[in-house]
Write a structure and sequence with these properties.
Elements (H helix, E strand, L loop, with lengths): L1 H9 L20 H14 L3 E5 L8 H10 L1 E5 L5 H4 L1 H32 L9 H22 L1 H8 L5 E4 L4 E4 L4
Parallel strand pairs: 1-2
Antiparallel strand pairs: 3-4
């Protein structure tokens, strides 16, 4: 994390753009990282519905206790159905990846300009700053898309997750599309 800490010291404004940077010695989201994520989400959302895959960390006793404590309901994407019903895959991945490609092209142009001005061959080696800028571009696109067209809600309805909502006047479920 040394390079990330150095970047945060040199350019703290980059870390105020909606993207969190966490690291774990494991190659996956372990129980510590997931606990951080659950606590951070609970600080922004009171009750919540979380759609996750079958990663064992999501279903550990510690995770379930935190979900209960924070009043978060968690449901699973069925095995083999990720491309059909997981919000990330159905509504967010393609536009986010497109924004990432645009940012990569912007960075490539900057590397070429820098090399030309220094009279050297271009090096396209990205460091943590470029990784963070790409993540920020992708995140910003997802936030923009959701603000414009309520993508999260519409995709969850389209994939079968939120067809019903409670009606406070009748105490029954009604179609989410009905007012």
């Amino acid at each position: 994390m040394k390079a990330w800490r150095e970047l945060r010291t040199a350019q703290p404004q980059l870390f105020k753009r909606g993207v969190k940077v966490w690291q774990s010695p494991t190659a996956y989201v372990d129980s510590v990282i997931y606990a951080w994520q659950l606590t951070e989400e609970a600080s922004r959302f009171e009750p919540a519905l979380r759609l996750v895959d079958s990663l064992s960390t999501h279903w550990s006793e510690q995770a379930q206790e935190r979900n209960f404590y924070h009043q978060h309901l968690q449901t699973v994407v069925p095995a083999g159905c990720t491309p059909l019903v997981q919000l990330t895959d159905t509504g967010m991945a393609a536009p986010a990846k497109a924004a990432g490609r645009v940012e990569h092209e912007r960075q490539k142009r900057l590397f070429l300009i820098k090399a030309s001005s220094e009279g050297v061959r271009p090096s396209f080696k990205a460091d943590v700053r470029e990784v963070l800028l790409t993540a920020i571009a992708m995140h910003s696109k997802m936030v923009e898309l959701n603000a414009e067209s309520k993508t999260v809600l519409s995709e969850l309805r389209a994939t079968g997750w939120l067809h019903w909502r409670p009606c406070t006047t009748t105490s029954h479920l009604q179609r989410a599309s009905e007012e």
